Amino acid sequence: LIITYISFLLQASTIDGRRKGACLFCQEYFMELYLLAELKTISLKVTTVDMQKPPPDFRTNFEATPPPILIDRGMAILENEKIERHIMKNVPGGHNLFVQDKEVATLIENLYTKFKMYVRKFESPDTSECRQPLLSHLERINDFLAKRGTRFLTGDTMSCFDCELMPRLQHIRIGAKAFRKFEIPTRFTALWTYMANMYELEAFIQSCPADQDIISHIKNQLGLRTTARIELETPVYTTAIPVLSES
């Protein structure tokens, strides 16, 4: 049996430069590769790169290109879309993750855009108006999951869509609370059950950044302010599920 050796470089934390950073694409592809490594179709080596102080050999090979970077048998793939296509077409077992489901693809697109628009807006007297697009989108995902009745978006096994959605849900869970005191309503029981299923998976746990790194990432990306001294805090990983309401 010939094992394919894959190296995956992901962005390091902007706080300590060592642990995993909160780049969404890094986590998405890490999850996909982790699932394939669990199935023993590949051997995976993951390295974090501190882009504030990249090592000399990184600069020599990749100049200023930030991760994610996938290296397969000596060939480096640098662009997000090319990495995804490479996993689908060239990494053993990868094609199994990439299912076709137009309804799911449409359902999850633009969710993160709505989140960014919400946290960017300064609190208006009517905060419910600002959060409505995000809330409505989360409700749509909740209703879809309730109707499908499967563990994951396209069935009872994970697909590329779960690797895309769950890191974004985690950013929304942590970021919307940190910047807007918004919490995903407990009445979205199907959505929370879905997240609970994801929290049980090593692919998610191993790839998940600390809450502080998510907050730092969103703060830097959107130019937001926060009073919390997250740089000094011990890293926390929020994966507990709240008590769900039946209403």
From TrEMBL:
Matching CDD domains: GST_C_CLIC
Pfam family, one: CLIC-like_N
A GO term for molecular function: chloride channel activity
Topological category with respect to the lipid bilayer: Single-pass membrane protein
Record flagged with keyword S-adenosyl-L-methionine: no
Alphabetized InterPro entries for the sequence: CLIC_N, Glutathione-S-Trfase_C_sf, Thioredoxin-like_sf
Keywords, alphabetical: Membrane, Transmembrane, Transmembrane helix
Annotated localization: Membrane
Keyword RNA-binding found: no
Domain CLIC N-terminal: 9-87
CC per GO annotation: apical plasma membrane; cytoplasm
PANTHER family: CHLORIDE INTRACELLULAR CHANNEL CLIC, CHLORIDE INTRACELLULAR CHANNEL, ISOFORM A
Similarity remark: Belongs to the chloride channel CLIC family.
Name by which UniProt lists this protein: CLIC N-terminal domain-containing protein
